[in-house]
Amino acid sequence: MLEGKKILLGISGSIAAYKCAALTRLFVKAGAEVQVLMTTNATDFVSPLTLATLSKNPVHSQFVKNNQGEWTNHVELGLWADMMIIAPCSANTLAKMANGICDNLLLATYLSAKCPVFFAPAMDLDMYLHPSTQANIQTVIGYGNTFIEPNAGELASGLVGPGRMAEPEEIFEKTVSFFSNSQPLKNKKILITAGPTYEAIDPVRFIGNHSSGKMGFAIAETFANAGAQITLVCGPTHLHAKHPNIHRIDVTSAAQMHQTVMENYASTDVVVMSAAVADFTPAHTSKEKIKKQGADLQLSLTKTTDILAELGQHKNKQLLIGFALETNNEEANALEKLQKKNLDLIVLNSLQDKDAGFAGESNKVTIFEKTGKKTAYELKSKLAVAQDLLQHLIQLLHA
Ligand code: CTP
After folding, report:
1. 363 is catalytic
2. What's the confidence (pLDDT) of residue 367?
3. In this predicted model, what pLDDT tens digit does every residue of 239-279 receive, in sequence order?
4. In the chain, what are the domain boundaries?
5. CA-to-CA distance for 280 and 264, rounded, in angstroms?
6. Is 348 in the pocket of ligand 1 (CB under 6 A)?
7. Which pLDDT does position 356 carry in this prediction?
8. What average pLDDT does this structure show over 21-45?
9. What architecture (CATH level 2) is domain 6-180?
10. Is pLDDT of 180 > 90?
11. Which of 132, 168, 301, 322 is deepest in the core (most CB within 10 A)?
12. How many Cβ atoms are within 10 Å of 29's Cβ, its own excluded?
């Protein structure tokens, strides 16, 4: 079931570490190649010798082995793996993952990993329920990692409640299901735009908007995990794309985004325009910084090209997915854009919804199909919204 798959199992310090012996055995029996990483604390709970024997590979826990200058290369380990599973993920390791702290080999490998990362927390009830732990889980999910929820039950302390690491069989099932269902977009070339555009007024000023790019990046990661080859054209953003199938092209202005999208359109199967493209740009960009003379300043703006409308006009085999950000008359406006721009799907964001929209981690959308079918979703994380969009796209591709 996992023949040839390369799995990196990261074990941190929790009593649930003993379950990793069974998990390693399940992976190896299913044909996977397993390398185990342990924090020093984890080695108090389960013996590295047990895991080395079961995984048929040496266990890594130190940057430098044997004090003889032999170096464990975390970057190589991170590149080697098809999947990294951090189980058990202790409260401490989780907090460090949320904050980019890198004080051991497991964390350095996590930060370097290009593959999908799953994490299975294990800790006592009150630690698990603490708001900081819950916030850390959301942050780590927000980085594109997959959360394996702990079970509720009797914990090592005797308390009863959530915090018990998922059973080895459950983690194994999730891994198998990931590898078998994970390629519905295999061989598809998908162009995604994300983030804002900046329209220069002069060398130091621009007209921009509040788009963070998070929705577009979540879609790119989700679709890449589904096997697609992604070209991600993004406006200015601090976000990082993790997946190796994502080819990122940075642009600044609407005109640059337009040019880049058109250059890539012919070879693309699906376009997702989630970028917040400026509709107007300064008619002239001043070469020098504009001085504050006079009581007011008139800026003359001209219309940018509507990229999506142009794609709709030249549509051949491509499926087109647009976004509509509305503050009023939402549904009618979204449907008008769907029809006018010759789209297959439109994702409506309403700025009237609290916690939905630009900067946050969550979004609340309604998806309209060309047929008029409407699906309204609850408020959920942007990654979960990307999963819903993936399901719509899979249906469209099979229609
Ligand atoms: N879009 C585009 N090029 C533009 C403006 C918008 O490709 N110059 C795309 C957006 O990426 C989005 C869709 O068109 O997928 C709708 O964008 P939106 O800003 O909601 O609507 P507009 O068409 O710009 O209309 P308006 O601003 O009047 O609502």
Report:
1. no
2. 97
3. 988 777 899 999 999 999 999 999 999 999 999 999 999 99
4. 6-180, 189-278+301-397
5. 23
6. no
7. 67
8. 95
9. 3-Layer(aba) Sandwich (3.40)
10. no
11. 322
12. 12
6-180 with 189-278+301-397: one CATH topology?
yes
Q: Is the CB of 272 under 6 A from ligand 1?
A: no
Please give the CATH number for the structural domain made up of 189-278+301-397.
Answer: 3.40.50.10300
Which atom of ligand 1 lies at the shortest distance from residue 321's CA?
A: 15
Residue nearest ligand 1's atom 9 by CA: 308
Q: Is the CB of 337 under 6 A from ligand 1?
A: yes
pTM: predicted TM-score of the whole model, two decimal places: 0.65
